[in-house]
Amino acid sequence: MDNHSTEQRPSSGGEAVALIPPPLSLYIHFPWCVRKCPYCDFNSHALRGELDEMAYIDALLADLQQDLPAVWGRPVHSVFMGGGTPSLFSGAAMARLLSGVRALLPLAPDAEITLEVNPGSGEFDHFLSYREAGINRLSLGVQSLDDAQLKTLGRIHSAAEAREAVAAAQAAGFDNINLDIMFGLPGQSLKQAAADLAALLALNPQHVSAYQLTLEPNTLFATRPPAGLPDAEDLERFYDQTRKQLHKAGFRQYEVSAYAQAGRESQHNLNYWRFGDYLGIGAGAHAKITDGSVQTITRTIKQKHPRFYLQTANSQQRVQLTEAIAPSHRPFEYLLNRLRLREPWTLSHFERATGIHRQRLLEILQPAFDWGAITQNGETLELTERGFLLSDEIVKLALD
Q1: Is the pTM of this model over 0.85?
Q2: Domain that includes residue 161, residue range
Q3: Mean of the pLDDT values across residues 364-380?
Q4: Please, where are the H alpha helices in the chain?
Q5: Is residue 318 part of a domain?
């Protein structure tokens, strides 16, 4: 059955539904960069003075140890080390961190462990020791292989250094590499964007994250936008060209901005978008934890400033914000994440992940069914091609 049918809806939306903890991931935030990029709104701070690696590793492990009661016995399926620039830290520091994580958490033997790398932070000699520490996936923030655009974006690396970083990672044995690239850059033509992506693909990544340049609040670019940015219609052309070019090169789009070769989808990011749980340690790290015993979903944020985080890592003060996701808000949160993915989902998954009866979701999505944006086959729902393009509008339905 390809279209929505009201006959398949449950007769009542008032039945109690059990909230069941989903798979668990670990996110580790490293807040320092060599220099803050003008478009970046992440919690990152320009490094001033010497980096005390071990003090921060000690803080991370103390932070994690205090978080353990919320996840006793639950295995961790993926680890993502983001920033900032985690690759400012040495292989020895990463080995100590991951050894400590394994001592505290049941880390799955085949867990995906990702490290973000800035091609300009000069850590190419660390790649082999990163691999020996247990890191098995790298994500390199290339952004462009056009030196003029890299300068406009405030990046500290050149195109040659980006190529050198990728080659060094591959020589160290990494065979699961994501490369970031931006499109819709100042003054960029469609032809130039296609050439930039072709140059990136020539580096043989297994995964590509392709983003449009956006002017985020509280960034330098938001205050002083660069000249020559494309308009909305042009951005659609950039997006469509990027998607087709990657598809032709053998990459499947599985999320709004993520493309992967078969079997190389980011397991960590998939868990996010499937409304999974994640611990978050480090300055400014976010977490989402489901507690089946009391039927709650709670978000936390750690102290954002590195200095204050280091001072409070051994106390409850390390937590800047704790907030329960109210049942009435869970459908919105679920759709906000789930509709980023180009994969079907089930009504029973919605119920387990939110503790909300499926009837409520079907009521919310009724306009989307009417638009031809979603189809239903039994208990399985799926966005149509039109629905994927309208996903932002569908998510807003949960706010009404």
Answers
A1: yes
A2: 24-272
A3: 97
A4: 53-67, 91-104, 127-133, 147-152, 159-171, 190-201, 220-223, 232-248, 267-273, 306-312, 330-338, 347-354, 358-371, 385-389, 391-396
A5: no
